[in-house]
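Researcher: Hi, I'm a grad student and pretty new to this. My advisor asked me to get structures for two proteins we've been looking at. I'm not sure of the right format, so I'll just paste the first sequence and hope you can take it from there.
Model: That works fine. Here's the first sequence with its structure tokens right after it:
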Amino acid sequence: MTQPDPAPAKAPESLADQVGQATQAMELADPDAGASAVDRIVNKVAEVIGVTVLATIVLLVFANAVGRYLAASPIIWAEEVVIALIPWLAMTGVFLSVRRRQLINLEYFTANLPTNWRTPINLFVDIISAATFVHLAYYSFLYFSLFGNDVTTYLKLPTGWFTSAMLIGAVAVAVAFVVNGYRDLMARRSMPEADPQ
């Protein structure tokens, strides 16, 4: 009786495979894992707004392209709505990125600093970021005050419906930065003193 051949040895995974698996796991993970119920609700509402805006943009662009190239009958107001919705999409994305701490920041540099320096530097970055978005909100308010009653060319909708994204979004992002800074500060105060590294 012959012995069955042993199972072939599994080839070691390449670095590219390992990076691919880690990336896939990170992309499929729940971005709100460990978040409070209130945080999950706020993030879910922002997600729904963002997905709705993105789906509307995609459908309008697709429908306009089909109408233009297959039926020689474009949707004349589609581009107007798409351009007007882009600020809402952008501000929703920035808001979610700040809330989930997925916004590009100085983390790469601060990770190499002593532990006792990280919180003050991150807090400083949060304050400067919040101030920047308050500044943007102020100028968005001035723009909205001057031009918010103008109407769009085809649909005759007030442009303020669309430009208010910059005002509302900037205020929301500034608040998100302040909340992040406050939470970092409270977490740091509740930690036992660590020796500087």
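Researcher: Oh nice, that was easy. Here's the second one.
Model: And its structure:
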Amino acid sequence: MNLPLTIKDTKEGLLTKKFSAVELVDEYLARIEKNKDLNAFLTISGDFAYEKAKVVDSDLQDLPLLGAVTAHKDLFLTKGVRTTAASKVLESYVPEYSATAVERMKKAGAIMIGKTNCDAWAHGGSGENSDFGPTLNPWNKKYVPGGSSSGSAASVAAGLSLIATGTDTGGSIREPANFCGVVGFKPTYGAVSRYGVIAMASSLDCVGSFGHTVEDVETIFNVVKGSDGFDSTVTDEKYEKKNGKLRIGIPKEYFVEGLDKEVEKAVLSASKVFEKEGIELVDVSLPNTKYAINVYYIIQPAEVSSNLGRYDGIRYGNARETFGAEAKRRIMLGTYVLSAGYYDAYYLKAQKVRSKIIADFDKVFEKVDAILAPVSPTPAFKLGEKLNDPLKMYLSDVCTVSANLAGIPALAIPSGFSQNKLPLGFQLMGSRFSEETLFTLGKLYQKSINYIPKLP
């Protein structure tokens, strides 16, 4: 078998007996062992994988994720398999139940191979904030893979798993997908249950996925979406599919000073591909974009400080002094903006500006079906480059946080490489529950450029 496979290739290979699920697990485990230095995994669940592979081989059914070897971000609870959130606080925690997304993927035929490294509690944009050491970028080990879902993106990019789950609170799926050259998808807030996923910032967290093709993440989304009775924010929406000519908006606020020239060129090249395919390009404006990063870094730490309050070291987990530096920084920032005397000045004001950001998107989506923009202002940066400058690190989220504040879906797609041979790409954002439109556009792009996934 030649990796990388897609979900479709895997299914066809199993159903035609070209290879077995056990052989697939052998192959991926061998690759994980060979690429140990990437530090993409925190826990390998080989026994569970072989057990599930034998079930798949003995009863071949045409399931959506048949034999799809899957890595789960270590924020997803997995029954009987250690879940740490990449923090020493939960170093030896083994959950009694699995997250809804994990259960649904398992029922659809997925084989869990292990749990991936991430920035501890998902706090970070580079993959360097894990209490168990940083994940490295498979394309160049001197560079970051992006965060916080660093191990998941690196795992798919390096062929250590076919697909992977992630969470996106301010770009934590799209940025690592962009830095590692894979497809990353963040759905509409309220499309997928967060039950059994360790919370970071509850009004922003989204459960999404990584794959080699747009079709792969679409398949995963169709398996995990919809209400489960455990997350009250989830709604069973009818996903509208747009018919007729589609229009893509190019927002001027995303093409400003500080945007790397190669990144800009890659995004504009993608727009030309869409234009060639008969998609109309429209210049649009999102004037409140400039406030998004400020708003995000008030709301997010406030919700972080509230969510991390439960880890008191009494019922389970280690004591609070075990928290890493970034977790402590966000707890203190969040506690400060929520405290008496500052709540109105910071948190309340931030929520009002958030409403203006949402209104900007609503207005633009009256004119266009999707927005095309960069994912990050630069390609992947060097390990350690921004580690001692939190502000610089936070600014790497400048292109992604708006989608989380507005609760809209976004799809990161690879488009080539920089002169330094680092992945480049772009993102498509759509109105709430316009997933179908984003998938249609994403598949159109990959078909148009005859996209063939490759491993480093």
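Researcher: Is there anything I should tell my advisor about the second?
Model: You could mention this: The radius of gyration is 20 Å.
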